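Thread: "does anyone have the structure for this chain?"

Original post by V.I.:
We have the sequence but no experimental structure in hand. Need at least a predicted one for the grant figures.
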Amino acid sequence: MLARLPERLRAVQRATGIVLLAVVIQWIGATDHGAALLAQQPTATSGQKAPEVNTLMEKQPSVEGAVEISTGMEPRADRRRYRFEKKGAIVFRKLADCEIKCDIYQPESADPMPAIIMIHGGAWRHGSKIAMIRHARRVARAGYVVASIDYRLAPKYPWPAQIEDCRYAVRWLKHNARKWNIDADRVGVFGYSAGGHLAALLGTIGEEENPAWNARNPNPPAADEMAKGEVLLKNISPTVCAVAIGGAPCEFGWLDENSNVLKYWMGGSRQRFGEKYRLASPLEYVTEGDAPFFIFHGTADRLVPLQSPADFHHALMQRGVASTFRAVNGAGHLATFSKADLLNEIIPFFDKHLGYQTPGNVTAEDK
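Reply from O.Q.:
Generated one for you, tokens below.
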């Protein structure tokens, strides 16, 4: 009994770390002060351990020489800064026991615009759309309609509720393209941490529903909800045209197979639910024809190993899918999320794959 105590204490530490991480990410994403404060924290240097809230790994795998580093993309000098209006708490999905909401950031434009769906992190059990507010405002000013979404959270709603809501959000946004002045053929997605995992799935799953999810889903949509429009939306493609992800677990082989750290979400350990973890892994679905990816990850991330998105990046490349990997030197999981300057590369990535808006007249306020 005593011999097992240290492992139990480590399990408690890991679970506590995930909860704390979700709260901090929410604060950082919603406030400039949070981002500025974190940016002042020291990053890892030679012989030092990066400051981090928690680790799910005993040791990081070596990826030296295995990762393609982005040379960087520069934002256009003539880019217009759009005025936008935020429309909050829009219900995009109604279920028997909850409503799922999003915030829409809508730039002023007479022409339909490309759209970006933003997905927050929080270990699939915490957080909300407000965590992405700084990113959403920046991307909206660049000329994209942004839909920052909520999704059902574990443990009340275990896997696969989260990806079902995200896929539904894509369909809903395309269905309402005219209302939100969106070009439904130019929809991308951006997510960080757990949100990055879900965004990666949106870029790789394809059109078909996964029958394995449906067979094991303990919380299917209510029959009356299906009668009110979900059948119609199922005829709309849930695929996206471009994906940017950061801090994202792209497979789960790095978790100890006996660890119950994600039990609240997956029901138990990998040893017990190996197939379930496999079917939740974006790496499992990579095929030629997937959406292009921009992947960024901190080299000092002690929560999600760098190897996970690196392997995903290489799998995309091997199948001929356009993928850029941006390793953020010395940055941990939280610090990478706070680096707003990464949007100087992410926005041009979306410009390339979704189509850049004509600058038009720039007002003094826009400059």
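V.I.: this helps a lot. Residues 69 and 343 are 16 Å apart (CA to CA).
O.Q.: and Strands lie at 84-94, 99-107, 113-119, 145-149, 182-192, 242-246, 293-298, 323-328.
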